[in-house]
Amino acid sequence: MFDTVLVANRGEIAVRIVRACRELGLASVAVYSDVDRLSPHVLEADRAVGIGPAPSSESYLRGDHLIEVARSAGAGAIHPGYGFLAEQASFAADVEKAGLVFIGPSPESMRAMGDKIAARLRMAEAGVPIIPGSLERAAGPEEAARTAHELGFPILLKAVAGGGGKGMRVVSDADALPPAFEAASREAEASFGDGSVYVEKYLARPRHIEIQLLGDQSGAVVQLGERECSIQRRHQKLIEESPAPLLERADRDAMGVAAVQAARAVDYRGAGTVEFLYEDGEFYFLEMNTRLQVEHPVTELVTGLDLVQWQIRVALGESLDFCQEDVSFSGHAIECRITSEDPDRGFLPATGRIDHLEVPSGPGVRWDGGIRTGSEIGPHYDPLLGKLIVHAGSRTAAIARMKRALGELVIHGVETSVSFHLRVMEEEDFGRGHLTIAYLDDHPELLQPSAGETRLLAVAAAMLEHEGSGRGSPTRIDGPDGRGLSTWRSSVWPWQT
Ligand code: ADP
Questions:
Q1: CATH for 4-103?
Q2: Measured distance CA(292)–CA(396) in Å, rounded
Q3: Which residues are known to be catalytic?
């Protein structure tokens, strides 16, 4: 049916898809913008085609051009990855119209879940609990205020076409509503070309728990367990894990059943995720992501299934060769998203050239990266440099392994979020599994360098000055844990070249 896949994406996910193709014996065609010419996804693919200038609107988002490139490169299928065109039903439909295979669900399933209001209606019909709130767009701030009074403050204004946490505003009282409505609507218009918003009850301290699904073309759907994604900043995930800590078996199973119901309601095929908010033993449908997710590796590690290979195999017409009862889970997996952002300065995006990269290895460690030594990190794309994922027998062992692996990760030349992840791995509530989406509001100290790190920076400055003065190196300098510096590593420190 197809033997070549065009990967319509960049960075770590494009590398991930190229690798899956290779293991399945399929050829891959990478695409790249002018600034990505020497990126790992380009170097690892069988072929690569330039698609234009850096801005994604002139390269990775040009659906028609990508379809043309696929045809002329002899690719019979397009894998969209996540982001960019991955959830554009019209792109999936155009791919099919061009006689190619879109590796993902049908455009109809994507449409049904792409509009948050339509999805809420569909889920309510299918008997899946939804977050209390309206089932239609708010015509204006007055109408939103009426709904808000019925629900009771605080409420959340949400973009109907939303995604990536954009077009959302929490509103705690009636006075704050009109300006928040205006702001959410404006942001939604700018991000999605559709400024409509609706009102949901704002849950103060829920957890974000989601269920991974896999469906085939015959209608079989299995659920592959949950992921805990509560550690977020501005509604964007930073750390994910599976299984979710301290979750009752009955709640986990009920969410699994609801997720399968949700997928069946839209004739879902391929990999997809149903997201829930979970609070006080109740769970509510948040949305369905009709694509592969950034955090898919934690599910892969606990189930032993390759989700990207399964996406491709389903697209090739293969049926799932296992059923729900065959799915088993082992151990605990955690993922840290490593971004080019400075956690000590409000996650300010950082740019620069990666002049040294060392990735961790050893038992239970996986690095899904999109960078190499020499990569230029510019302002054009998502700041995700790579994902560090660990797997171990228990949650405690996985945290210890993640600390070890973060310590081995060396990214020199651009600020990264590594020090933030180390702080979370050390934090007590995280260790106990006490997680909610307000975790960072409750732990603002994690957004500041710890006392140990500040001391270490001072030591580093002294050491560089000492070396610069030509008086030779000091014999031993202690790291924050009292061990010699050579045994304590973090990618943020300048001497690690
Ligand atoms: P997007 O599609 O923009 O990613 P989601 O609906 O998936 O938006 O929500 C993203 C995050 O926003 C959730 O993980 C959660 O942290 C927060 N959120 C969304 N809806 C609510 C709500 N009703 N109450 C509290 N938090 C919410």
A1: 3.40.50.20
A2: 28
A3: 291
For domain 132-201, say whether CATH 3.30.1490.20 is its number: yes
Q: Rounded to whole angstroms, how far apart are CA atoms 361 and 409?
A: 9
CA 222–ligand 1 middle distance (angstroms): 25
pLDDT tens digits along 238-282: 999 999 999 999 999 999 999 999 999 999 999 999 999 999 999
- CA 158 / ligand 1 centre spacing (Å): 8
* Contact 272 CB / ligand 1 (< 6 Å): no
Buried b (16+ CB within 10 A) or exposed e, 355-382: eebebbeeebbbbbbbbeeebebeebbb
pLDDT tens per residue across span 208-229: 999 999 999 999 999 999 999 9
Q: Where are the domains of the chain?
A: 4-103, 132-201, 207-447, 457-496
Backbone region of residue 364 per phi and psi (left: phi > 0; alpha: psi in -120 to 50; beta: other values):
left
Residue range 350-371, pLDDT digits in tens: 999 999 999 999 999 999 999 9
CATH number 3.40.50.980 is the correct assignment for the domain at 207-447? no
Q: Which of 37, 10, 78, 50 is nearest to 370 (CA)?
A: 10
